Amino acid sequence: MRLLAIETSSLRGSVALVEDLGERKVTVCALDHRRENAHGESLLPMIERALALSGWNRRQLDRIAIGIGPGSFTGLRVGIALAQGLSVGLDIPLVGVPSLQAMALAVPSERMGCRCVLLDARRGEAFLAAYHGDGREALGVQLVAEVAHIHSLISGLPAPLFIGDAAASFSGLPAIYRSPDTDLPHARW
After folding, report:
1. N or C: which terminus of the chain carries fewer CB neighbours within 10 A?
2. Which of 93, 115, 108 lies closest to 163 in space, CA to CA?
3. From residue 108, how far is each of 47, 103, 128, 133, 181 by CA, in Å?
C-alpha cells in the first residue's frame, strides 16, 4: 500500500510518502517547511516534489492520511481541504490521524513510559495528551496553562515522558525528551 501523508497543524508543514510492506512501513520520501502561514503555497509543490523524488505518480497512491490536530485552525483547514480534494479526485480513501498521537509514535520504542505530548497552543497555553508506547490513548487532548494542572492530569500514568515544543515552557516536569521528530508533528509519523 502506498500512502501520502500530510501534516499542517503547526508551524511545520510536512508531507511524506510511505509504503506499507506488511510487517514494516518504509518512509520513501519526507519533506517539510517551517514558515508561518505558508502551508497554502507550499503544500502542493512539496507533494509534487516528493512524488518526483520517489518516482511515484498520483495514480499509484492507495490512501491519503491527514493530521487532524489539534493545532492551527488555518493550517488544519488548508491541509484537510487539499487532502479531501486529492482523495475525491483520485478516488482513494482519506484517513484522519490525531497530530499529537503521531508525535507520540515518533518517540523511539526503547524509551519507556507514557508519552505526554505538550504542543504550543499560544497565549501561554498548551495542548496536552498522553499515549502509551503502542499509541493507545492514555489521556485525551486537554488545554493546559499551569504545571500544577499538568501534574494533576497525568497522576497515575506510568513514567511520564514529555515531548513537544511546549514541554520546555513548563518548569518542574520530570522527564523531557527533545528531538526534531518529536518537537512538532511531522507527516512521516
Report:
1. N
2. 115
3. 26, 11, 20, 9, 10
- Nine-digit cell string for 115: 508519552
CB atoms within 10 A of CB 19: 15
- Closest listed residue to residue 89, CA positions, set 81, 99, 78: 81
User: Partners of 29 in the beta sheet?
Assistant: 17
CA distance 54 to 157: 41
CA distance 70 to 78: 14
- Three-class HEC string of 31-73: EEEECCCCHHHHHHHHHHHHHHHHCCCHHHCCEEEEECCCCCH
Provide the pLDDT confidence category of residue 39 given band limits of 50, 70 and 90.
confident
Cell numbers of 70, please? 489539534
DSSP assignments along 140-160, one per residue: EEEEE--HHHHHHHHTTSSS-
Placement of cell 488544519 in the chain: 76
Q: Report the run of H or E that residue 111 belongs to, with start and end.
A: none
Residue 187 to residue 99: CA distance in whole angstroms: 9
Q: What is the pLDDT of residue 171?
A: 86
pTM score over 0.85: yes
pLDDT score, position 172: 86
